[in-house]
Amino acid sequence: MDIATPAHENRHLRYLWRAYKRGELEGHLPLAQDLDVQAFPPAAIALMAPFPGELLMAINMRDEPVGLAVVTYSQTYDRRRAFPHVIWFKEATGRQRLEITLRFLLNLKKTNLVVIEAKRPYWPFFHHLCKYGVLRRVGTIKCAYGADESTAIFQGIGK
């Protein structure tokens, strides 16, 4: 299980189409809501090809995509920062989410300072990752998404 292959590969487009039809990409990727099966691949590729970061597929043990990882980067001074976000598909089990995320963060933090912004419903998942020593919580931003909508900030530990 890993997050490795680019999302725009032809073999992954059918999984992205399935997630798109179920509404799992809505609010995450700016795709029109009424695309049909013929219009989707060119629209998805046109969105992903010039993306300044990385769009990668989360792959399970059966080599099936179970999520889409969106990683943006910024360079400040001499350290590159990575801001990952994963859109999990319905097929992803809790164990797959944990194992894939853990492996992904371990690889990502080898070359980047990892910074994750998490809304309140996702805090338990990231607190659990902190127990593995891959992340630490470094703060909270109050009212980040409106009144009473705080977000926690997690940072990758070490290289």
Q: What would the CATH topology of the largest domain be?
A: Aminopeptidase
How much of the sequence lies in strands comes to 25-35%
Describe the biggest sheet? 7 strands, mixed
The tally of beta strands, per DSSP, is: 7
Q: Could you report the average pLDDT, rounded to the nearest whole number?
A: 87
Return Rg in Å.
16 Å
Helix content: 25-40%
The CATH top-level class label of the largest domain = Alpha Beta
Distance between the termini: 21 Å
Find the structural class using helix and strand composition: alpha+beta
Under the CATH scheme, the architecture of the largest domain is: 3-Layer(aba) Sandwich
Number of helices: 4
Dominant shape: globular
What is the element string, with H for helices and E for strands?
A: EHHEEEHEHEE
Low-confidence stretches: none
Trace the largest sheet across and list its strands: 1-2-3-4-5-7-6
Number of structurally distinct domains? 2
